[in-house]
Design goal:
The chain is α+β, with helices and mostly antiparallel strands. It folds into 2 domains: about 200 residues, Dipeptide-binding Protein, Domain 1 (Dipeptide-binding Protein, domain 1, Alpha-Beta Complex), CATH 3.90.76.10; about 220 residues, Dipeptide-binding Protein, domain 3 (Roll). The protein is built from 17 helices and 20 strands. The strands form 5 sheets. Strands 12, 13, 14, 15, 16, 17 and 18 form a 7-stranded mixed sheet that branches. Helix 9 runs antiparallel to helix 12 and helix 16 runs antiparallel to helix 17. The longest helix has about 35 residues. The radius of gyration is 27 Å and the shape is globular. The termini are far apart.
């Protein structure tokens, strides 16, 4: 009896051990699958976002996060191809001439509910963006189109805009001024189509959630839990769906902290992570391949020119210009390879007549000097009639680098000029809102090029541009922008840009600080990810997972 019980006990233990082994084996395969950066079986990529997009309404979106998401959800007349070249999108062919442009749309383009994308969807979208009540900060980008500026100001009706649906599949654009770079504009997010019935149905809530928009791009917005999670799935109605290799782009992490993103990458939970100063050595020590991409973005301090702001005083701005040394900021404070000191409104990536604009039109540099800075500050105090300097407010982002930069400025202001600089650190969405309202003395800002032409930087501080957050208003600056906008002659345009570059140095509407370069790590099995200055970044439309 005892032997029989013992034998049964052994058999039971053996069975339990066998089941436990199977369970452990299953867990070994299950646990990584839950946190898998790339899943070849499902063709799924997992990513982290620095922040959620403030909006996915293409008529009012202004930021790089929205640009990244919209580049996957939507498709314009033209797109940027796998090698960064302009390629057919909804338009299968086009013709550009001095007076305008014609686009012939493919009849296979569909919205995510199966309805065809037509020329009328572009006419509506462009009129909607220019409608004064929309308050699009990118309305100015349509101004080369005939009557666009007058429509945006309410002087002419929407129907007077120089864009016409000749038929369901032919769109004609009439220029009011020369625009040799219009094809690049046509690939920008504000030029994306919109469905009138959907926009009218949702009104102010349009594109506020995953169920409140229709899309026509390679992916649909499958999930949007605000502040927590976005997920994109392949759009089965996309006209080129068979060429899309990644089925799902999951973004279950939202954090602006590079360390947090790097830890997720290290643990194989996300496929790409940015590197900041403190992370580069660890990435090298772990044997990760380090990738580099020049973003084409300019970072700068922007001054507030609204009434009553000390920063509207030129002598004060000249004092700050003499105080801050971009070379020292980049090499001693930020200390990250690939980031370049900035001395011009135009980054080194901007094209000129034959090569780089900056090589063809060298910028005049201003040498930093504490003595000169204090001299200008004294002059500013007299001009402003101040007995005592009040505290100044610097609006900054919430990333570690943004805080590091802001604290460095705070130190310089105190030690070099004896001024109190208070840091107003805000999350991305709130910082954009405060910039829009002008709730700052200075703001640490950045601008990435929207299209492949020098004008994308030049008109940024024109008086009519709503992205001119400090409300800089200089008739001479405006005149040079208008001259460049009114000419098809390349040399005339670039000579005007040289004058704009000179004004930025002499009048200091902004203080360029650095040109950004992105160091990052990427899962080696993830191939074909396009890093690009234009058209959203990064792009997974052409990517695949290696088995």
């Amino acid at each position: 009896m005892v032997k029989t019980l013992a034998k049964r006990f052994v058999l039971v233990l053996s069975a339990l051990a066998h089941r436990l082994a199977i369970l452990l084996l299953a867990l070994c395969f299950t646990i990584p699958a839950v946190a898998q950066a790339v899943d070849a079986a499902k063709s799924k990529v997992t990513l982290a976002l620095a922040t959620e997009p403030p909006t996915l309404n293409s008529a009012v979106a202004t930021d790089t996060i929205a640009s990244f998401v919209l580049a996957h959800l939507m498709e314009g007349l033209l797109v940027y191809g796998a090698d960064g070249e302009l390629a057919p999108g909804v338009a299968e062919r086009w013709q550009l001439d001095a007076g305008g442009a014609s686009f012939w749309l493919r009849d296979s383009a569909r919205w995510s509910d199966g309805k065809p994308v037509t020329a009328h969807d572009f006419v509506f979208a462009w009129r909607h963006a220019l409608k004064p009540s929309t308050a699009s900060q990118y309305a100015f980008i349509f101004y080369p189109i005939k009557n666009a500026e007058a429509v945006n100001s309410g002087k002419l009706p929407l129907t007077d805009l120089g864009v016409t649906a000749v038929s369901d599949y032919e769109l004609r654009v009439e220029f009011g001024q020369p625009c040799p770079y219009f094809l690049s504009l046509a690939a920008f997010m504000t030029f994306l189509p919109m469905r009138e019935d959907v926009v009218d149905h949702w009104g102010g809530r349009y594109a506020a959630d995953s169920d409140k928009l229709v899309v026509n791009g390679a992916y649909v917005l499958d999930k949007w839990v605000h502040g927590a999670h976005l997920r994109l799935r392949k759009n089965q109605h996309y006209w080129q769906v068979e060429s899309v290799k990644i089925n799902e782009i999951d973004m279950p992490y939202i954090t602006a902290d590079p360390s947090a993103q790097f830890n997720l990458f290290r643990d194989q939970q996300i496929a790409i992570a940015p590197l900041d100063t403190g992370l580069l050595n660890e990435a090298v020590d772990r044997g990760f391949d380090i990738e580099y991409f020049h973003t084409g973005s300019l970072f700068f301090l922007e001054f507030n020119f609204r009434e009553g702001r000390i920063t509207a005083n030129r002598s004060f701005r000249k004092a700050v210009q003499r105080l801050i040394d971009p070379d020292l900021l980049v090499n001693k404070i930020i200390g990250l390879p690939g980031i370049k000191p900035a001395y011009s409104l135009f980054p080194v990536t901007v094209k000129g007549l034959k090569g780089s604009f900056r090589e063809e039109y060298p910028v005049m540099r201003v040498d930093p000097s504490i003595a000169s800075a204090r001299k200008y500050l004294k002059q500013a105090k007299e001009e402003l009639g101040l007995a005592v300097w009040p505290p100044l407010v610097l609006l900054a982002g919430d990333s570690p680098r943004a805080l590091q930069e802001a604290e460095y400025y705070q130190y310089l202001f105190k030690k070099g000029l004896g001024l109190e600089l208070r840091i107003d650190q805000q999350v991305f969405k709130q910082r954009l809102e405060k910039m829009r309202r002008g709730d700052f003395d200075m703001v640490s800002a950045a601008w990435g090029p929207d299209y492949d032409d020098i004008m994308t930087f030049a008109d940024l501080f024109a008086s009519w541009n709503d992205n001119n957050r400090g409300r800089y208003d200089n008739p001479l600056y405006d005149r040079w922008v208008r001259l460049a906008q009114g000419s098809n002659d390349a040399r005339t345009r670039f000579n005007a840009m040289a004058q704009i570059q000179r004004i930025v140095v002499e009048d200091v509407p902004i203080l360029p600080t650095y040109e950004n370069g992105a160091l990052y790590v990427q899962n080696p099995r993830l191939k074909g990810v396009r890093r690009s200055i234009f058209g959203g970044d990064p792009i997974f439309r052409y990517a695949w997972i290696e088995q």
